[in-house]
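Hello again,

I reread your note about wanting to compare the complex against the isolated chains. To keep things tidy I'm splitting this into two emails, and this first one only covers the full assembly. Below are the input lines as submitted, including protein chains and any nucleic acid or small-molecule components. They are followed by the predicted structure of everything together. The single-chain runs will come separately.
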Amino acid sequence: MNNWVVAPMLIPLFTAVLLIFLNKRLRLQRWISLISVMLNAAAAVFLMIQVRTGGIQTLNMSGWAPPYGIVLVADMFAVLLVLAASIVSACCLLYSFRGIDEDREKHYFYPLVHFMLAGVNGSFLTGDLFNLFVCFELMLMSSYALIVLGGTKRQFRETLHYILINVLSSTLFVASVAYLYGATGTLNLAHLSLRIAESGQSGPITAVAALLLVVFSVKAGLFLFFWLPGSYGAPPAAISALFGALLTKVGMYALIRVFTLVFYHETSVTHTLIGLMGIATIVLGGFGAVSQTNVNRILGYNVIASIGFISLALAVSNEDALKGAVFYLVHDMIVKALLFLLAGILVAETGTERINRMGGALIHSPLLGWMFLAASLAVVGVPPLSGFPGKLLILQGSLEEGRYVIAAAGVLLSLLLLYSLIKIFILGFWGEPRHPREAHWKQPRKLLLSSAPLMLLIVLLGLFAEPVMPYMQRAADILNEPSIYIQAVLKE
Amino acid sequence: MPKGSDIFLQNVSKVVVFIILAFALYLFFTGHGSPGGGFIAGLMSAGALLLLALAYDIETVRKVLPVDFKLVTASGLLIALLTGAGALFFGKPFLKHAFGHFELPLLGETELHTALIFDLGVYLAVVGVTMTILLTIGEDR
Amino acid sequence: MEVVVAIIVGVLFAVGIYLILTQDVLRIVLGTSILTHAVHLLLMAMSMLKTGSAPLLGRGKETFVDPLPQALILTSIVINFGITAFFLVLAYRAYQKLDTTDMDRMPSESSRHRGQSR
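Full-complex prediction:
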């Protein structure tokens, strides 16, 4: 039992409630949110140290022993993602101090962000399938409100679609929980894994696994992604960045967790399906990114394509691939947030979202241009940056298994994404400025400063991949060997 | 339709609202060992307020209860969270409850339970959320 | 009993999906709500329909019902309550703003008057 495990969930919840009371006092709200997110990151680091020295940390909520009560589990994988989420959200909050208009701030922007963070961290840390659903809903409810905040026509239309899709997938989630409970009599992930290993993964259970695959795929944007580019493009940059960095990754985390811990017996069915969906996602997402002319949509398709790439690692599921998946997931959270934030500045700078009407941004803000280029290269996986080690490991893992198609898809993805991002760079930054700068647009420097920590992280993660690797290794070990997780949860 | 014209509904609801609220109170306290609890009591109280709003109008409800229901929700959440987090200070797992028997004046020996405080939080949150939604949809017509 | 419940679940699913496939936002909201209730019924049926007393010790009863599905359903109802309410408010606001409740007639991506993202 370790009460620290609940901290990354409790801190944002408290902050959110506190901020509702301080609705009128914007300056105070900003400071409190920032401090809270920093505290959260500190708690995540503290947890990480505990996990490194003492193994997996668990907390039985309300003192009920694991198969009966809800258990929170902090293993290295979850803690790494919690830490990355905290850092990313800190930068997005810093950005939103200037990047979000006061009207939105007054309409409970900060409380909503913190509610969403509580949901995100809860989803990472929970060890119970139904609790995962509850945390998902907490996160999604706040995201519904965040996406419509401001209330433009486009936002209303996209939000209606977004809510409908998510409500449907949540319904299917509860249905699959019902089936699993009927079949196994438990919802604790560790206990589920144990029960299914004992009785064998029969046909019906594989069918439920496929249902869960559909549910999480909708949330992650794996193959079932038609809703994503529109919805993520509707809100302002700071909110899109949070969504692009966190929401889809939570879905991906759930996929990896469930399919490495519980449903790992019938890999010829489920994992093949994941692989096929991953390849389809890469192809569709990659070509989608290439074909679009709207910056936010290009980035939306980039998010989708990366999800496809991570799911390839899950399809391969050997040691190297999973290690790569953990690394790439952390990298992807950071780099996608950075790209959305930089694109937000670019859109503000040029006054349009269409890249064929942009141009010449490099003249006014050279730093923005070079940061964008560096971030694009990191997405593609150019060596000194953080995209490289993860991508290398995933490709290496798939080659070890003789999955050449998967490796080829991964390489194809890099080319397509490179093309789509360089297109933004060339059309947006080169040439002559076509629009006069808006008079009220000032100080992009401060906005740039808020995304600088992310940039720094990308470089550092790439350069010092070696010292970070043991942590990734540890996370991957648990994914490879479910018994470690099961023993840690059910020991008491 | 002129507002507040239905004299039967108005007079009946003057009485019925209090019956509903009393029943909600009963449900709230009985929720510890039988069906009931903060959520259902909260919904019932909100139902009573809704009846008031139907019989008179929303302005009347505003006048009777001049509070910001968003803040009611927030205080409810805060109470529930603090009760859950209280266990942290005693080195117990999060959300662990405590209870004891106390000798109270008038009531005699009574069992007091921290889960009741948590339920109070739930009650306030539910009333707050429901009323916020009703007022949001109902007020512009 | 299980068969009856299974049929009811099926009918509710069909009704919910039919409503969601229509174009009117209000019907879609009702559809999602009905669909969720179908799933709640499914959850109850999957955990065996049986009679027994509340699972509290010391009441001199022999058989108990499983409390977990009820807790799950209650939680899910609460969440559904929140989402349906939010969805309704949103549909109403969207109607005010877009002057239609028809999903297909809502202005498309190419509309020029969108708010600048900043």
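For quick reference: Residues 11 and 55 of chain B are 9 Å apart (CA to CA).

B.
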